[in-house]
Amino acid sequence: MANSPLHGGHCPPWLFTKMKELGASIVQTMVMEYGTEEVLRRLSDPVWFQSFGSVLGFDWHSSGLTTVVCGALKEGLRQAQGEMGLFLVGGKGKASRKTPIEIMEAGERYGLSNDIVQLQQTSRTVAKVDSAAVQDGYQLYHHFLVFDRSGNWAVIQQGMNDKNRYARRYHWLSEEVKDFTNSPQKAVCGVRKKNVLNLVSGQNQTTRLASVEVCQERPDDIKEVYNEIITLNVEKKNQGPQQLSLFDEGMWGENETTPDKEKRSTPLSSVLTMPESHPIPSPRYLDKILYKIYDKPPETYQQLLETEGVGPGTLRALAMVAEVTHGSRPSFEDPVRYAFAHGGKDGYPFPVQRGDITQSLNVLREAIEKGKIGEMDKLKSLRRLAKQENLIGGKS
Known about the structure:
Layout: E1 2-5, H1 13-34, H2 36-43, H3 46-55, H4 64-76, H5 81-84, E2 86-92, H6 94-97, H7 99-110, H8 116-133, E3 134-135, E4 139-148, E5 153-161, E6 166-173, E7 197-198, H9 205-214, H10 219-236, E8 247-249, E9 270-272, H11 283-295, H12 301-306, H13 312-326, H14 354-372, H15 377-395
Antiparallel strand pairs: 1-6, 2-4, 3-7, 4-5, 5-6, 8-9
């Protein structure tokens, strides 16, 4: 994950054209040298991706780097996808919602043997995890999926937080995902926040299991507990500032009783203290989704997460009820765990050098064309240059 400030301005058309050409040439070079799987690994690295955007002429700190770089790659490689065996779908806003359709179109156009339906479901699940299960205050607006003929994939998606004026980018890699609901993201970096409800954290395994168990209870029983939590929160609302977290300790003392306390195997020991950025669903909406889940209870947390209509509010409400009924207290651990080659579009740290970016593009184009006919000298020279730069950097 990478955090970057929301940034105004736009990418000038002449620079976007250069970005398409240079970005496509770099990716084609990597495919020829290292194969499609290595390209996916690098795209899943937030530091490499940020450096890549800077090489293409974008500001290192700009949130626009994500959407423009992904858009430039998609446009620049559109005609070369079949030859490379690397396919790029999705994007910003409306384009993100067309991802499943674009996956199907790529499969039909290039005769892919991939499990297209599974790739479509993967796209939906990844988006659902970062938008609903990771409740960090960032609303997703960008979803970009890259996959190869072998079914390997990488995802780059980004969310926006209007309050702190930052964007957060999430990176995924298929070879790192063993379980979509247990610490699935490839890379995590950024500024830690307090009180982030990350329901796919490894520390929240018991909360996930308990939430699935709750789905098998009668909706009326769940709503009874849920409404009681809300009522208690309202009663406590005027007692001064509350801790910015989902639950607050000590609502019930050892000797306190409630009309229904005897009915529970686990005493109610917590009460909701909801921050403004994490609204809870209305009982009316919750009633509808609970009956839908009850009619066909999920067997796993991933099935619950993939259920249509289950969003952040529903998952949060189930976590609340799961704590009361099963004693599974959730963890609030944020999932958050580097030079310019051609300048930046806003002139920082210096204006984009058109001559330099054109020269870089010409060198890569020549290397690619010679590589296609078996003359690998230029590519080998670039590789030796990279090794020499690493040696120099290591000594400095």
